[in-house]
Every structure is written in C-alpha cells, then in structure tokens.
Specification:
single chain, alpha/beta, Rossmann fold, six-stranded parallel sheet, five-stranded parallel sheet, globular, DgcN-like_N, P-loop_NTPase, DgcN-like
Length: about 350
Amino acid sequence: MIPGPFLLYLGHSSDAVGIKTSRGLAAFRPKDCLGEWRHDDCPLTLDLPRMDAAAARAAGARTLVLGIANAGGKMDDALIHDALAAISAGLSVASGLHQRLRDEPRLVRAAADAGVTLFDVRDPPADLPIGNGLPRAGNRLLTVGTDCSVGKMYATLALRDAMHARGIAADFRATGQTGIMIAGAGVPVDAVVADFISGAIEQLTPARHDAGWDLIEGQGSLFHPSFAGVSTGLLHGAQPRALLLCHDPSRAHMRGLPHYQLPSITDCLAANLSVARLTSPHVQAVGIALNTVALDEADARRLCSSVADTHGLPCTDPYRFGADPIIDWMLTCCDASTPATTVSA
C-alpha cells in the first residue's frame, strides 16, 4: 500500500480529463488527500488546500502522487523537477505513468539518498496466465464505454457503493492506475502484454460461489483505434454476466482523435455484447451510465430519462444521481435461473 496522506499533483496541467488520477483519489479516498500541488499556470483545482512539497511534508503528507495522465504516459522535465523537490522534502513518490520512476536515474539516486520509496503502479503481476475461456462461476459486471475516459471507473465504484448500501456483496476489481491506487490492488491491464490480457482478468476475477458480484473496471473502447485491443481482452477475460455502458454526451469526437466520431450508444452496445458472447453467451446489458458533469441537473435528468426511453434500459449518472435503477435491473434480469456461462460448441 502507498503510504498516506497524499499530496496530489496537478503540476502545469490544463486538461481536466488528464488529472483523472488525482481527481479520482480526491473523490474516493478523500480522507487520505491532504492537498494539491499546482503551479500558477494550472487553471484546474480539486478544491483541496494548495501547497508545495515542503509545505505538504510539514503538514504530514507522506507521498506525492503524480496523478496526471498524458498520451503515452511520459514524464517531462518539469514533472521530474517537481518529483525531485518532493523527494528532497522527504516525500515518497507514486506514479501510474507508463514511463517508470525507477527508470529515471535522477529519481532513483535522490530517493536512495533521502530514504524514501518510488512506487510504480503500472506494473503488472509476474507470471500471468494466458486466458483459457473456461466457464467459471460467479456474477461479474464489466463497464464498457463509447470512448476512453468517459467515467467507467466512477460508474463502477458508484455501483459498488450503492450495492453495499443495500447489503449486496460487491467487490471492485481495478484495471487502471487510478483504480489500483484507490483499491490498493488490481491489474494495470494496459501494461499487460497483449497475449496475457484475458488471462490477467481471469486471474483478477476468479470463480465466486456466493450471490455477490465482481464489478470490473473497464478500459478504453472497442471504437477507439488506440485502445480497442485492451477493451477486447477485458471483455473476453471478464466473462461478464452484465455490461454497463458508459458515455459522455458532451464529447464531440473520440478523445485525442478529432478525425474519429463517437459511436452511437446502440452500435456500441451491440458491438460489446457481440464480443463478450465469445466467453459469456448469456451476457446482458443492464444499463447506461452517463457522465453528466458538463450539464446542469435539470438537463442531466432529462437526458437520462430520454436515453432510458430510447434504449429500453435504465439510464442514470451513477456518481451524481445514484445507481439504484441499474441495480434493480441487474437483480431482475441476471437471476439465478440463467447460467452465468456455458461451454460453447
């Protein structure tokens, strides 16, 4: 476990989606988040006390979390400079970027001299198996999306919390850097060698024999040319009994690809169900989760109602309005009389 309290790094970021790791920790582990470190050119905030590394250490912080994400997951010179300042102040440093802290000699030397620890979160477990597609018992839900970074983790965690409130056993299975930092465990699936993605998810969500649910955090999108491979491996390894489709209605195009338009909800649902049926023939869609952060409450509620009517599925913003409509549908359509998996011919 990464030692808290945390100082959450925003740095020079101007992309609200790009600070998703810091934002996710502030939302789901607020008691562990002491403050935010942002420079004067950063227009973003998590509404936490603003402080630099030295002030955070004096206030009791133990780890600087480099809670930003960028294309390719690289550390630039400004980020390395700030990480070195944090180490000098006595903070450990945690990162979920693809470029590892341990591969930057300046950080390794500084951490050794200061007696602090570097945590690279995006390290998959060793000796992952190849997926076998064998049926396994248990209820599993996977969140999927029309695009990447549309709120799959938020929807999954909101669903878990709502199920717990109703006394339903439910476990969040993290598959990305932010989810792993929140949960303290998981598999960073986008860092897994392609041949082992489905096997990694089979291992993350083994058979369970109670009436509870494994709620698996989705990644990417079948319709995003950069990340569809990860999404496919997740669909096959999860053997989901249920799919929850996540969508950001404010998106004009696929993230990072202005030349690719978003798929329709109808097309996205159909494609994900089709791919999932390879290992889970009885998979069902159980709802649509909208990320309505860009809408006022009245417009958001009207849109949820309209989408629900159009698609014949419950639709809500589970983080903003609660996940009960989705849970009600899950409990109705995914009953014990329908087998979770069968061996296909």
